[in-house]
């Protein structure tokens, strides 16, 4: 007995737009026979593929150009940023600043030189007054005696009195007072820089020797070790700790010794 007929999928109808229908359709009697109908379609496909390839190559060239531009532009921006950070300083000193600084240094040097000369040479008014007094006193004396007395008086005036010598006890007290004063100052004055420690001791000693009178900054300068910059730095530290007071009410800056506050 024959078995059952196997199930078969019915054949689908060929779509009307297919190449097979185009080649076999009776409505197109001039259609190419066999595979000849593929030639024009493949030629058109080849043309479109060439156009697509040329467009892809153009996009690739455009991408390369954009990448090159981006790298160059980023490098330029980086260089401009570094230039702004290293060269463009709005508060940098100009040529006028250096000229002004040089002029101030010359004025300070002249002032220091004048102060040193005023300490070593007597004032003309004092010499004239002494000379006049000596002349009046020797009116009836010989000219040689008068000249000798004037010379002797002038020599005494020109000669500067030295600082009185201190005893051992006074030296110890002075050293203890200086150490106490330096201990109140910032760390840089207390031993980090031996030269600065020596400078602050010289400034403190000069202020102590002033005897309570106001003393100018130039009077504390003792070149070459103790220059104006070091003296100014030491005075600023002493004024901040209220060990020294600063007064400029008379038009001249004077510093008064007060001592370490309790």
Automatic annotation (TrEMBL):
Organism of derivation: Dentipellis fragilis
Broad class of the protein's primary localization: nucleus
Name of protein: DASH complex subunit DAM1
Keyword set, alphabetical order: Centromere, Chromosome, Chromosome partition, Cytoplasm, Cytoskeleton, Kinetochore, Microtubule, Nucleus
GO CC list: DASH complex; mitotic spindle polar microtubule; mitotic spindle pole body
Stretches for region Disordered: 114-134
Pfam families recorded: DASH_Dam1 (PF08653)
Protein family (similarity comment): Belongs to the DASH complex DAM1 family.
Biased composition (Polar residues): 117-128
GO process annotations (BP): mitotic sister chromatid biorientation
Subcellular localization, as worded in the UniProt entry: Chromosome, Centromere, Kinetochore; Cytoplasm, Cytoskeleton, Spindle; Nucleus
